[in-house]
Amino acid sequence: MIFILLILAIVCVEKKIKDYIESNKQYGDEKEILDGKIIINKHHNYGMMLNFLEDKKELALMIPSICLGGLLIIFAIVLTKKRSFLLKLGFSFLLGGAISNIHDRVKRGYVVDYFSINKGKELKRLVFNIADVFIFVGTIIIGIVSFFKLFSSEDSVERINKSEINF
């Protein structure tokens, strides 16, 4: 239950932040915070990551929605497993961020991004939102847990050793 509440908290807090940005920030207005390390600004992302597929809005909604459906099924299975706290946490972060961004695409037709990292020209031009951070961190957690789970069980190691992998 705690993981479902975490997903809901991510979605609700992110919605409040995005609504605030939409109502109170203008395009081009920048505000530096955290000693200038983070820049708050308003950006509409009509595509997927880095505006990929921005000219194909239907695909930019359909692909993440299909992925979300698959992730929800996997999450439902993972929730039934004992001793999978980090995996459940990773999926909660990933799903909270994904649901938030998909909600934006459905309701607004774009995703509201609102901060960038003030380090170098390339990093500064990338604009994110908190949902993106949760998606990234959740994916990293799932990847690390899955990697160690794969190599920690003797059965997995034995299967890898018996397979005939030619390089």
The Rg value, from CA coordinates, equals 19 Å
Low-confidence stretches: none
* Continuous helix count: 6
| Category by helix and strand content | mainly alpha
Task: Provide the domain count.
Answer: 1
Query: How many beta-strand elements?
Result: 3
User: Major sheet: order of its strands?
Assistant: 1-2-3
Structure report:
With 167 residues, the protein is mostly helical. It has one domain. The chain is built from 6 helices and 3 strands; from the N terminus they run H-E-E-H-H-E-H-H-H. It has a 3-stranded antiparallel sheet. A hairpin with a 4-residue loop joins strand 1 (31-33) and strand 2 (38-45). The N and C termini lie far apart (45 Å). 23% of the residues are buried.
Write the layout of secondary structure elements.
Blueprint: H1 2-24, E1 31-33, E2 38-45, H2 57-79, H3 85-108, E3 111-117, H4 120-125, H5 130-152, H6 154-162
Antiparallel strand pairs: 1-2, 2-3
Search tags:
167 residues, 3 strands, mainly alpha
Condensed summary:
By secondary structure, the protein is mainly alpha-helical.
